[in-house]
Amino acid sequence: MPLLANRSVIAALWTALAAALAVLGVALAAFWRGPGLPRAASLVISVLVLCIAGALAYAIARERTVNTRVRHLQDVEHDLRASEAKFAGILDIAADAIITVDAAQRIVHFNKGAERIFAYTASEVIGRSLEMLIPWRYRLAHDGHMKAFAAGPYASRRMGERREIFGLRRGDVEFPAEASISKLSTPAGWLFTVVLRDITDRVRIEREQRFLAAAGEQIAGSLDYEATVRAAANLAVPEMADACVLDLLDGDQLTRRVVSTDGPECVRESLAVLAEAGPVGPDSPSRVIDVLRTRQPELVSVVTDEWLEAHTDDRPNVAAAWRALGARSLMIVPLLARERAFGTLTLLAVTRDRRYEMADLVFAEELARRSALALENARLYHAARTATRARDEVLGVVSHDLQNPLSAIVMGASVLTEQPPADPDGRRQLLRMISESAAWMQRLIRDLLDMSAIEAGRLSIERRPEQAHAIVASAVRMLESAVAERAVALEISVPNDLPLIDVDAARIEQVLVNLLGNAIKFTASGGRIAVRASAGPSAVEVSVADCGIGIPLEEQAHVFERYYRARHATRRRGAGLGLAIAKGIIDQHGGRIWVESTVGEGSVFTFTLPLAQPPAASVR
Ligand code: ADP
What we know:
This protein has 18 helices and 18 strands. It has helices at 2-31, 39-93, 112-118, 122-125, 136-151, 200-219, 225-235, 265-277, 287-294, 305-311, 316-325, 358-418, 424-455, 468-478, 480-486, 505-521, 553-556, 578-588; strands spanning 97-102, 107-110, 156-159, 165-169, 173-186, 189-198, 243-250, 253-260, 298-300, 329-337, 340-349, 464-466, 489-493, 501-503, 528-535, 539-546, 593-598, 602-610. The chain is elongated. The mean pLDDT is 86. The structure holds adenosine-5'-diphosphate (ADP).
């Protein structure tokens, strides 16, 4: 622009000069018309000056025209540049790769999208053959397609209409793509432009959706809990993982299920060791424990030796198995049901070409959600069936248990009415049988009511500071006649000076009567039963030990379940409620109850009771 401005100023000056010369020419003509010069000479001079002025005016007019043209050309050039820049900008901001090749398939344009998708810069590929961006196995076919397209009637078409197409980015990494091609005839020959989109994400999402739909069907196929557990552990293998470890909480206990692919022998061996080693403990450095606690998933894209060392527990065989497994990448996702983590799913990548990223974690969480739902459904179904079975069983037990004393009462009453024994002792015996049977029925009904109160969380306890020895003495008094009848020796060792306990005395007495009743029931005549109590830092521990038949190890975990009657005890009287009620009462007090037993040697039932708070120090 400054150049044009200067030219305008100069043109104005020249115009002024031409005008001045024209005026001068006219003035001279007038001046020289006088006597000094011949008329012809003055005419010649005037004409000359006017000619010079005219020439100047013409030159100025030409200059003006040239100026205008230059300006016009500059405007056109500017517009062209702007348009090119706009076009290049549009090509560059396009997310798709836009690649132009000449008739020999040499790359002549490579936009920013292409740089991003193929991981090459434009300067690295311009002038090189398009083949470098096509996987080897497609190159020959691609060449044929290009030739056919060049010779064909269409100016553009979609590529890969009949099959998937793939691109090849730097590092020989293939990716699925979607592309279209167009051709343009130019004075320099044909130009072909390919617009290509990387559809890795879309293909992955479609595959994942298909997989999830199939997985959903597979896992919801059965309501059987064990079958669902197996299905959950198998789901991700081999689609998503080379191996899968499923840890499930069963109460407070973790149980572990491991599934491997038909991967190499060493992988299977390591997994077998991990399965056999059993679940990780609550204090283990395993991330499974953290995931259970925090309910947040864990992604370890690259499993390093340091990571393994930091998160594997010290059991030597476990550490060795993890090292031998050679997991390269892993994800641990929680299995959640109603805001509670009841297990984890660990997906392991053992082969080199699998490495988990954030997108995989999102997918694994989705898979875990479906697995959790199916597992929870199966668990609830199992629980509902167990409850129904238990209810049927209890109806059977209760009707059977009520039947016997009721028959005794009916029989005793009818004898007393119809043919009362002549001697008073015979009558007393019948009356005692009636009253004992009634008491038994009363106890059974009370137990049933207590059990349903415990299950509904409505068992009321009224706690007060109490003395352990007084409660024990009262319970023992209630069983004096049974002890004497069975002829067992009862040894009480409960010091008088134990700290006060914060309990509902009647309920603890109920627990003790139950434990002592069982001890008497399962101990042969002449046997010994001991009740002991001692004080700990925050609780008093009470135990009832007998030298009776004992409880097999596999049944010990079940004796506190309601309506449970051990196999060896089924012929004895009892609805299998006593220990469940005892546990409910002790739980309600914030204590703990457990059993240690050896078959043939006897059983020790122990429970803890909280100490009463020491009176607060008075403020002076
Ligand atoms: P019940 O009220 O029928 O006695 P419990 O809940 O008290 O039921 O006990 C459940 C089961 O535990 C009993 O059937 C018995 O098999 C076993 N059991 C309880 N106490 C003892 C013991 N001291 N010795 C051996 N087995 C016992």
